Amino acid sequence: MEVFSVVSQVFGARSTVVVADDSSCVVVDAGVGVSTEVVAHVEARGLRPVAVLATHGHVDHTWDAAELTRRLDVPLHVHAADEHRLHDPFGTLGSIGGPASHDVGGPLAQAIAASGVDPRAYELPARVETFGTVQGRDADVVLELGGLVVVARHAPGHTEGSTLYLVEIDGDPVAFTGDVLFAGTIGRTDLPGGDDEVMARTLDEVVAALDPATLVVPGHGPTSDMATELRRNPYLAHRPR
User: Fold this and answer.
1) What CATH number is attached to the domain comprising 213?
2) Could you tell me how far CA 163 lies from the centroid of its own chain?
3) Which of 137, 149, 170, 175 is buried most deeply by CB count within 10 Å?
């Protein structure tokens, strides 16, 4: 089993191909402009794609979901509480997206345009499969995707439907944390759907409870591990364990 990441020019969003021993694979997140490189890697290796997984619904992690799911002929899996973001990618981001719903003149649209992509060209993925519920905190959902067993763990706070995807690679635990946990910090909570109190609970009950041996693969920035984050991350180091 192995992983391969592609980093988007827009906000450095990471998209990762996770490959099982039987050559089936999933793609975690679909940042702006990553499709060509991801598909080329999948085809060159003769991999069998099964799904695209969204850690949350922010468009810097879902922009290429329509193209990727079409070219790989797979569905996009996203938590039910974040599905609405796919339908209004800029309006659901508040001031970063733009001053009005569906506005493409805000900072995010400008960043997308600077990468050479027309922000008006956004497409809704044709195949979307949701898990979890819109209200409350969900129990783990086990996704059996080809040769991969992926645990989708609800981790709201950055958005209502933020999700950690947990897998084992050669017996070692790996967590794809999206914008919930980064190396040395956490995701912001001041955008629509973010919540300080909910994030604090997620950090206490979900993130800090991960095995210290877990490799952390965030949605932006370098990888880390839970032992390091529990010791050094100021949002976690003070929490009882």
Assistant:
1) 3.60.15.10
2) 7
3) 175
Q: Is the pTM of this model over 0.85?
A: yes
Contact status, residue 188 vs residue 199, Cβ threshold 8 Å: no
Tokens of residue 161, six digits: 């439907």
Structure token digits, residue 30: 């679909």
| DSSP result, 97-113 | T-SSTT---SHHHHHHH
Spell out the residues 6+ positions from residue 186 whose beta carbon is closer than 8 angstroms to its own: 158, 180, 199, 203, 233, 235
The two tokens of residue 145 are 């995707």
pLDDT tens-place string over residues 86-137: 999 998 998 888 755 555 668 888 889 999 999 989 999 999 999 998 776 7
For the chain, how many structural domains are there in total? 1
In a domain, 241, yes or no: no
Both tokens assigned to 28: 């975690």
CA dist 191 and 169 (Å) reads 33
Closest CA to 163 of 187, 186, 146, 179: 179
- Euclidean distance between CA atoms 154 and 177, whole angstroms: 11
